[in-house]
Specification:
heterodimer; A: about 240 residues; mainly beta; nine-stranded antiparallel sheet; about 60% strand; elongated; B: about 425 residues; five-stranded mixed sheet; 4 helices; 35 strands; globular; disordered N terminus
């Protein structure tokens, strides 16, 4: 059903950007049985014919969650939420909607094999939120850093290697060696004043620490979801700064 | 003649507000709950709403055209006061039911993740953070009569975190770890911490070099702001059986040498700020006084919880000047702007009342409250307790309070800037009315 709708949307001749199109802030609700969820969707045309969007659902802690795979046509809109609300069996939560008037649309949310109807009304200009982006880091941070955390009475060696790229944001690797070796996929590297933040959102693991110049170390913690483990990272011998 | 006296008094109040006004909980370091200008005596329109991902218990503060607040979705927000558009948001790792304080370019606030943050108020960038010994709610065996009576139960009505106050280069706040902390405002270094016997979620007030605050150990403390040494303490009520009539959740106001604070023992106390001796008390006969009192023009204004009374008392004698029966619990603290008092109610009403008489001038009802999902409210907007609180066993009380809090209720204390009133709701929206 969803594939059919997306196919239909892709075949639509033009994007509906004009007044009455999907561009804007939309408010409404999802009618999950016994639990009506308020829904705010922001949709705006981006560059190269691609659309951008974000979503707010009060009660699920979602504020500015990015929309993925946005497909806009004369008939309506389809998008999903990527990893947010994803189910391992059924995949991402998907939204398909048809325009029901100049400023209204109705559709279906599919999540975890369930289907719920939703309606939306246009209330104003789009306020699409952009996801946090990695930044370049100071030269002091650009190195391999290592330290140990204790988890369940076992020491784990953490090594974070931060690399700058000319004219672009820094990237990092995040390796944890314990009973096994785990390379965490890093999707965010941010320098903020004295602080370095390295995040693996897929693993829900974050390192955040403050650079102490006279000791040449980054003192902070590794957060595993809601739990934090103190971690002091020291520069690996011979690792360039 | 009375008109002239009032005009002089109002002018004095305006000067006082201008001198002490801060971007902090209750409008100033002494927590008077008064705001400059005259709030709207009539409701005109919803200026804007700003949706977030979870309930908003935090109260908004304002500086330079920007409104700042915390969200239970874990973010700290900066929103343009004119159009309601987001300037920035900053993620913490827990709900933020505390109210930020802004001093210079720094914003200070604590989170349920057990950390206290200093952010750049212009960008949301982290300046420093301080780790406490961790947050938790007040808890007790058989709390409020919940069953089984030997089970330790966290208090769902312990909804706020302590909001910081900034004074003399330090930032002061309470914590669920039982301490009041004093940190250097610039560096975040610990200056001192003061240990109490239980959770400190009330917000400290500052006046004349002294920090005043209450704890869930049912003691109210006055502590030297520079040294952290206790100057005096005052004991509120105890309740060894139900643990219902115990502890300070209300935050104090300190005006003209008198400390005014509510207590869960159902009293509003007026204490001598220098000695801690009791000057007078108002008894709400078993109903909590959670609201932080506002003090203006010689009057103390506060509300009660389940008895839902709106009270105006003489600040010197405690004599009741006006007492009005409201519709539902008041946890939101009154904000005085000119001759109008604004208060949020847990049934989703924002009420504007006349300062002198307590008479209702206008009210606004949140959409979630109007929808009344699950008939949490009666037709006259009181809590429909028999329907949503059928049992004191197992998870029933927890589910009941979750439902009670989900109907667009207002814990957040209103902020008044000019002719606009800002407040958060459990429906996840920050509202701007004018």
């Amino acid at each position: 059903m969803r594939r059919a709708l997306i196919g239909c949307l892709l075949c639509a001749p033009a994007l509906a950007c004009a007044a009455g199109g999907p561009d804007g802030r939309w408010e409404g609700s999802i009618r999950i049985p016994g639990r009506e969820l308020p829904l705010v969707v922001d949709l705006a045309p981006g560059t190269a014919g691609r659309w951008t969007g974000s979503l707010i659902i009060a009660g699920l802690g979602l504020k500015g969650a990015p929309l993925s795979n946005i497909v806009v046509g004369d008939a309506g809109v389809a998008f999903d939420l990527g990893a947010v609300l994803q189910n391992s069996t059924y995949g991402p939560a998907t939204f398909n909607a048809r325009m029901t008037g100049d400023a209204s649309m109705a559709g279906e949310l599919r999540q975890a094999g369930n289907v719920a109807p939703f309606t939306l009304a246009k209330v104003g200009r789009a306020q699409v939120e952009t996801s946090p982006a990695s930044t370049p880091v100071r030269r002091d941070f650009e190195a391999a850093w290592t330290g140990q955390v204790m988890l369940g009475d076992y020491p784990r060696t953490v090594t974070i290697t931060v690399v700058n790229h000319a004219g672009a944001a820094a990237t990092a690797t995040f390796k944890v060696v314990g009973k096994q070796v785990t390379d965490l996929a890093v999707d965010l590297v941010v320098e903020e004043g004295e602080f370095l933040r390295v995040e693996s959102s897929a693993n829900r693991v974050t390192f955040e620490g403050r650079f102490v110049k006279d000791r040449d170390e980054i003192g902070g913690s590794v957060a595993l979801g809601a739990f934090e483990l103190p971690l002091v990272l020291r520069r690996v011998q011979g690792s360039a700064s | 003649m009375r008109v002239m006296v009032n005009a002089i008094a109002l002018a004095g109040l305006a000067a006082c507000v201008a001198a002490n006004a801060q971007s902090t909980f209750r409008g100033d370091a002494a927590h008077s709950g008064t705001f400059g200008g005259n709030g709207p005596r009539q409701f005109h329109r919803v200026k804007w709403t700003f949706p977030t991902g979870d309930r908003i218990v935090s109260s908004p503060v304002h500086k330079d055209g920007v409104v700042y607040f915390g969200g239970d979705d874990g973010y700290v927000y900066a929103v343009d006061a004119a159009d309601g558009r987001q300037r920035w948001k900053r993620k913490t790792d827990g709900p933020v039911p505390a109210t930020p304080a802004i001093d210079g370019n720094s914003l200070y606030v604590g989170s349920y993740d057990g950390k206290f943050y200093a952010l750049d108020a212009r960008t949301g960038a982290l300046q420093w953070k301080f780790t406490t010994d961790g947050e938790r709610r007040f808890e007790a065996k058989g709390l409020h009569g919940m069953l089984p009576k030997n089970q330790t139960i966290p208090d769902a009505y312990d909804v706020f975190l302590s909001s910081p106050v900034v004074a003399a280069g330090a930032v002061y706040f309470g914590s669920g770890d039982g301490h009041l902390y004093a940190l250097d405002a610039k560096s975040g270094e610990l200056r001192w911490k003061f240990k109490t016997g239980d959770v400190v979620h009330a917000s400290p007030a500052y006046a004349d070099g002294v920090v005043f605050f209450g704890s869930w150990d049912s003691w109210f403390y006055a502590v030297d702001a520079r040294t952290g040494q206790q100057k005096w303490r005052f004991h509120g009520g105890e309740d060894a059986v139900l643990h219902n009539q115990v502890g300070f959740q209300s935050s104090p106001a300190v005006v003209n040498g008198v400390v005014y604070t509510g207590c869960r023992d159902s009293n509003l106390y007026a204490l001598d700020a220098a000695t801690g001796s009791e000057k007078w008390r108002y008894s709400a006969n078993g109903s909590w006084v959670i609201t932080s009192p506002a003090v203006a023009l010689g009057k103390v204004i506060f509300g009660t919880s389940d008895s839902s009374l709106y009270i105006v008392a003489d600040a010197t004698t405690g004599k009741v000047i006006a007492q009005v029966q409201g519709s539902a619990y008041m946890f939101s603290s009154p904000a005085v702007a000119g001759s109008v008092v604004f208060t949020g109610v847990l049934n989703g009403l924002l009420e504007a009342r006349d300062l002198d008489s307590g008479k209702l001038l206008w009210e606004f009802q949140t959409d979630a409250s109007k929808r009344n999902a699950g008939w949490i409210l009666t037709a006259d907007r009181k809590f429909n307790t028999p329907l949503f609180y059928p049992s004191a066993w197992r998870e029933s009380p927890i589910v009941a309070t979750a439902q009670q809090f989900a109907i667009g209720g207002i814990f957040s204390s209103p902020l008044v800037v000019g002719q606009a009133v800002y407040f958060g709701s459990t429906d996840g929206n920050l509202y701007a009315l004018e």
